């Protein structure tokens, strides 16, 4: 159980580093993804990422960029511990002998397996986070303005459990969450290992310094979003959809309607903030993971 404990600890610290670096970018991404399509002749609420940042800070202060952070912060230990621990245990299964480095293809398989496991924890966490991040983008402005629907992460969970079908309501969007996490993590861990091996000149990457580890981690995070971004837009759209009067009947319906009403660019709303977040956040995550893992012996 020594390796499991190390992966649990290192994954937790890596996840915390990722969250602190990346959450403001994630907030802007979700706001752009979830803002309503403007009526003919009207302008969208946010003209782009910079405009969303300015309006969020003006309306909610700098703390508005960290809306919804409570849910992922409360579960960051579990999410990243599961991700890195399942990946680590799959590495053990695929190794030809103890301590042998894996090929890039084997790391892709490990990443996909970890994505299956982490989806079950990520779905309810993301639903709570997206509801909190999106409520200002979805709010009515002017004379019809109303108070925020949710008071915080626990309030979201309480309202969903009470009025959206119980525990099942917290798993709304599970299919697109899995469609994001499985190929996304396969791509991320494959690119991470491939870049490390390239920079190390072989499969033994134990001698790499912090700079190469950060570079590999940052580019691996970018690979995650390049592989699955439209799926994330579908997931966010479904998770913030109204329960009583839904716009979408499911993932395929959401994909078709977004494509029909907004075109291909609708499937890439918030892509800029997602990529701007992924590189530094994943660089911090992988570096923190590797440093913590090696320090534990």
Report on this structure.
The chain is an all-alpha fold and 297 residues long. Helices cover 72% and strands 0% of the residues. It is built from 10 helices and no strands. It has helices at residues 2-34, 49-60, 70-94, 104-138, 153-163, 167-170, 174-200, 210-239, 251-262, 271-295. The two termini are 14 Å apart.
Mean pLDDT: 89
Tell me, what's the shape? Answer: globular
Largest sheet, strands/sense/barrel: none
Note the total helix count: 10
- Overall strand count: 0
H-E string:
HHHHHHHHHH
Q: Calculate Rg over CA atoms.
A: 20 Å
- Helical proportion? over 70%
CA(first)-CA(last) distance: 14 Å
Contiguous low-pLDDT stretches (5 residues minimum) are none
Structural class comes to mainly alpha
**Percent range for β-strand residues:** under 5%
């Amino acid at each position: 159980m020594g390796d499991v404990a190390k992966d649990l600890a290192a994954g937790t610290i890596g996840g915390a580093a990722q969250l602190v670096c990346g959450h403001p970018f994630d907030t802007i991404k979700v706001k752009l993804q979830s803002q309503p399509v403007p009526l003919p002749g009207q302008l969208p609420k946010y003209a782009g990422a910079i405009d969303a940042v300015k309006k969020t800070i003006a309306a909610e202060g700098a703390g508005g960029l960290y809306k919804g952070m409570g849910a992922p912060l409360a579960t960051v230990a579990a999410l990243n511990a599961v991700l890195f621990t399942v990946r680590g245990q799959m590495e053990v299964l695929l190794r030809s002998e103890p301590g042998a480095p894996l090929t890039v293809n084997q790391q892709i398989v490990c990443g996909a397996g970890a994505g299956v496991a982490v989806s079950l924890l990520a779905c309810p966490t993301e639903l709570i986070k997206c509801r909190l991040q999106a409520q200002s983008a979805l709010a009515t402005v002017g004379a019809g303005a109303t108070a925020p629907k949710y008071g915080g992460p626990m309030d979201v969970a309480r309202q969903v459990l009470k009025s959206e079908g119980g525990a099942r309501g917290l798993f709304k969007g599970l299919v697109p969450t899995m469609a994001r996490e499985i190929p996304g993590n396969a791509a991320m861990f494959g690119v991470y290992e491939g870049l490390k091996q390239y920079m190390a000149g072989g499969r033994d990457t134990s001698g790499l310094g912090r700079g190469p580890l950060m570079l590999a981690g940052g580019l691996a995070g970018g690979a995650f979003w390049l592989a699955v971004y439209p799926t994330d837009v579908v997931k966010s759209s479904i998770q913030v959809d109204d329960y009583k009067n839904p716009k979408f009947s499911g993932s395929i319906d959401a994909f078709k309607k977004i494509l029909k009403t907004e075109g291909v660019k609708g499937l890439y709303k918030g892509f800029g903030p997602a990529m701007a977040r992924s590189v530094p956040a994943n660089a911090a995550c992988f570096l923190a993971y590797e440093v913590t893992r090696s320090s534990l012996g």
